[in-house]
Amino acid sequence: MSKIRIKGDTSGYVDLETSATGSNLSVTGNSVHIPGHVIQFKHFSGTSQTDVNANGTYFTVHTDSTFTITPKFSNSLIVVRHYAGGLVQNSASAMLRLLRNGSTIFENDRHGYNNLPSNWSPINWSFQFVDTPNSTSALTYTIQVRKESGYLRVNDYSANANTYVVTLEEIAQ
C-alpha cells in the first residue's frame, strides 16, 4: 500500500509525495493528475434545429452554442459526446462528422439511411468520440451533417423543438 506524506510548510500550498513503485499520482499547483480520472467536464445544451436543404454539402448543427474546452495537460484525452434526435426521408445516406478547430477528426459516412419517399423515419444523431489532441490550447468542436438526397432534420422529431446535449470531458493520462 502506498503512503502519501505531506512535507514542508502546511500553512500555504502543500506538496504531496508518494513512495509507491509505479505510482502515477502527481499534484501540480492546485490540480491533481491521476490517470483515468476526469480533470474537467463541460456540458452544453440547446434547442436549435437544422433543416438540411442541399445535397452533398455539410451543414453545421447547433449554431446556438460554441463547444470549447482548454485541456490542462497536453497528454489528456478529450471525450466528445453528442445526443440529438432527428428525421430523415428518402435519403440514400445521412452522414455525420466532427471537426476540431476546423479540421475533420471523425466522419461516419452512413450514420442513417431511409429510401422511403413518403415516410419520415427517426434518426439518432448520437455519437461518442475519444480525441487525442496533444494540446493545452483551446479546442473548439463542431458537429456537421449532410445528405445525399431527400430530406434531413437534426434535433427535430416534430413541430416542437427538442433539446440536444453535447459534453466535453478531459481525462488524465
Structural domain count: 2
| Number of helical regions | 0
Helices and strands, in order, run as EEEEEEEEEEEEEEEEE
Rounded to an integer in angstroms, the radius of gyration calculated over CA atoms is 21 Å
Q: What top-tier CATH class of the largest domain fits best?
A: Mainly Beta
What percent of the residues sit in helical stretches (DSSP H or I)?
Answer: under 10%
User: Which CATH architecture of the largest domain is right?
Assistant: Sandwich
Uncertain segments are none
Can you give keywords for this protein?
173 residues, mainly beta, Jelly Rolls, 2 domains, five-stranded antiparallel beta sheet, four-stranded antiparallel beta sheet, 0% helix, 55% strand
Describe the 3D structure.
The chain is mostly beta strands and 173 residues long. The protein has two domains: 1-34, no CATH class; 35-171, Sandwich (Jelly Rolls). 0% of the residues lie in helices and 55% in strands. The protein has strands at 4-7, 15-18, 26-28, 31-33, 38-46, 50-52, 59-60, 67-69, 77-83, 85-89, 91-100, 103-114, 121-124, 127-131, 139-147, 151-154, 164-171. The strands form five sheets. Strands 7, 8, 11, 12 and 15 form a five-stranded antiparallel sheet that branches. The mean pLDDT is 84.
